[in-house]
Structure to design on (78 residues):
């Protein structure tokens, strides 16, 4: 865990906790250092959409699994 006074360390840890790889983390930190916040916002919004797409994909799979098991139980399965 980064020291709270170590701003760059805290940001790095937070970016990694989001699931960003080392290359993207470094790019985000560089954009922050260069005060290129619009580019950083665009990058993070795109990453957020990627995460949401994954959530939706797995939610659809869970729905299919639930329906399948419901159908099995309804038709006499345990």
């Amino acid at each position: 865990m980064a020291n709270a006074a170590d701003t760059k360390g805290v940001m790095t840890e937070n970016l990694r906790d989001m699931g960003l790889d080392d290359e993207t983390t470094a790019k985000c930190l560089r954009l922050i250092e260069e005060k290129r916040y619009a580019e950083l916002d665009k990058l993070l919004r795109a990453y957020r959409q990627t995460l949401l797409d994954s959530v939706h994909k797995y939610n659809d799979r869970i729905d299919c699994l639930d329906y399948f098991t419901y159908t099995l139980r309804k038709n006499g399965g345990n």
